[in-house]
Amino acid sequence: MKAFICTTCGTQFAPSAAPPDACLICEDERQYVPLTGQAWTTLDRLQLSHMPIFRYEAELMAVGIAPAFGINQRALIVPTAQGNVLWDCVSLISDAMVGLIQGIGGIQAIAISHPHYYTTQVEWSRAFGGIPVHLHAADREWVMRPDPCIQFWECETKEIAPGLTLIRTGGHYEGGTVMHWQQGHGGRGAILSGDLLQVVADRKHLGFMRSYPNYIPLGARAVEAVAGRVAPFAYDAIYGAFWGGVIPANAKRAMDVSVARHLEWLERPAL
Ligand SMILES: [Zn+2]
Ligand SMILES: [Zn+2]
């Protein structure tokens, strides 16, 4: 039995004798099955075909994969008074990666923004001794490899370590979550946003979409709800999901301007 990994979204499924019939995450309207068809790999094969990248993104050590794999997000390692927390996840995990991360203190917990980044979360948990993986319960149906390490949380916020608070924003996914890091950026705070708040190409604005590959925007009420749930928290930086996707200062203003721009364009009359 092998735990197959979808090569388009990087999600690992529960062990099975044959590859799953389909990837439910890629068949959803927020993702896609490539024209070349559904394809699968395994962690063993990924360890031979790909290698890890460790690099600082602003204040945080980030972990990614080369060459690009799946959605190609990178994860972030966030320090707290109770040890490090891994924010979001990538499909590759290996003994070498575990050794390197142990060298900077290991990780005590994992929190993931939404199902596109669940990837090999169970392998990561087990590699660090069965640490908890915090997922919002509203996205429970998208867990393709159930495991006791997964701790579903409910309601709107949850503090998982001193100064580290998960915030359900909804939007892209109903259980979509960002994480507030109170001590970040000199105590001014940071938001780790996955693609619930998408740091866009100019690194000065954010995008708000139900689907990024299929260009389905969020409506006005959904964007207002996302903004309202983040508004009570103090922050100066936003870390998005992809390499280089960081707004390093004045991020609260970037959020306000981006929300206003999005809402304005939704309401423009025909040109
Ligand atoms: Zn997939
Ligand atoms: Zn996504």
Task: Show the helix and strand layout.
Blueprint: E1 5-6, H1 24-27, E2 40-41, H2 43-49, E3 51-57, E4 60-66, E5 75-78, E6 85-87, H3 95-103, E7 109-111, H4 121-127, E8 133-136, E9 150-153, E10 157-161, E11 164-168, E12 177-181, E13 190-194, E14 198-199, E15 206-207, E16 209-211, E17 216-217, H5 220-230, E18 237-240, E19 246-247, H6 251-267
Parallel strand pairs: 6-7, 7-8, 8-9, 13-18
Antiparallel strand pairs: 1-2, 3-4, 4-5, 5-6, 10-11, 11-12, 12-13, 14-15, 16-17, 18-19
Helix pairs in contact: 5-6
The structure holds zinc ion (2 copies).
One zinc ion (ZN) is lined by residues 114, 116, 172, 195.
What do you see in this structure?
A 7-stranded mixed beta sheet has the order 3-4-5-6-7-8-9. Strands 10-11-12-13-18-19 form a 6-stranded mixed beta sheet, with helices on one face. It has 271 residues and is α+β, with helices and mostly antiparallel strands. The mean pLDDT is 98. The protein has helices at residues 24-27, 43-49, 95-103, 121-127, 220-230, 251-267; strands spanning 5-6, 40-41, 51-57, 60-66, 75-78, 85-87, 109-111, 133-136, 150-153, 157-161, 164-168, 177-181, 190-194, 198-199, 206-207, 209-211, 216-217, 237-240, 246-247. Helix content is 20%, strand content 26%. A hairpin with a 5-residue loop joins strand 18 and strand 19 (246-247). The chain has one domain (5-267): 4-Layer Sandwich (Metallo-beta-lactamase, Chain A). Bound molecules: zinc ion (2 copies).
Observed structural traits:
271 residues; alpha+beta; Metallo-beta-lactamase, Chain A; seven-stranded mixed beta sheet; 6 helices; 19 strands; binds zinc ion
